């Protein structure tokens, strides 16, 4: 029943979003660099499509584990087939995004802001692939994600201020990558704390138009640090790190939406934040 419901809900939501993705992909392949609004629309379109599938994958994987513990072989087979279907769709969407980035968006990026935005986006979608991959495929995806995040960081540190929302969103997602994909809590905490401290030191110089987005991401960095350094030293079962999500404003690179607390993990699970 759960698999059928999730399949219906996922297919319906993704069908509604497909038109926007198709249109924005055509825009991305036109000559010239995308405007800030176009860039954010493209990011939002793909994030919504992949987010629906990531949410379904997390929920169905949780159900699969519970059914396996009950020894329900028939149910497990049905659920596993659906999980594999979601993984196939996720892989296709992520590869589609990565192709657009590599073939069009990154080569045309001229400003430091655009370069950071697209390399961060590339890191995000390789990370999404690593979330459900295993063996060598996971290793390849993780390596590619790390390289993209590192490229974005190199540009951000020289061309964007510590309070810039895109730079903060990059630090947020890069730290989630260290924590969830590389299982490196020390590096995750160090990166998140450094980004937070650097931004705090320059908070007085923060422009009015980006104040809301920057302080919101700073709060998410602090939320993750609190979760990752909790007194028991462990992560609550099913907890997911928070990440930032692009919004359709010129100022913002990544203001999180409520979906990040619900989509990234089943409702009963507490959640750290991503971008």
TrEMBL record:
Q: Pinpoint the 14-3-3 domain residues.
A: 14-243
The organism sits in which domain of life? Eukaryota
Coiled-coil segments on the chain, per record:
none
**Sequence segments annotated as region (Disordered):** 228-275
**Gene3D superfamilies reported in the protein's UniProt record:** 14-3-3 domain (1.20.190.20)
Q: Which InterPro entries match?
A: 14-3-3, 14-3-3_CS, 14-3-3_dom_sf, 14-3-3_domain
Q: Where is the signal peptide?
A: none
- SUPFAM superfamilies the UniProt entry points to: 14-3-3 protein
Q: Where is the composition biased (Basic and acidic residues)?
A: 239-248
Matching entries from Pfam families are given as:
14-3-3 (PF00244)
The similarity comment for this entry is: Belongs to the 14-3-3 family.
The identity of this protein, by name, is 14-3-3 protein-like protein
Q: Which organism is it from?
A: Talaromyces atroroseus
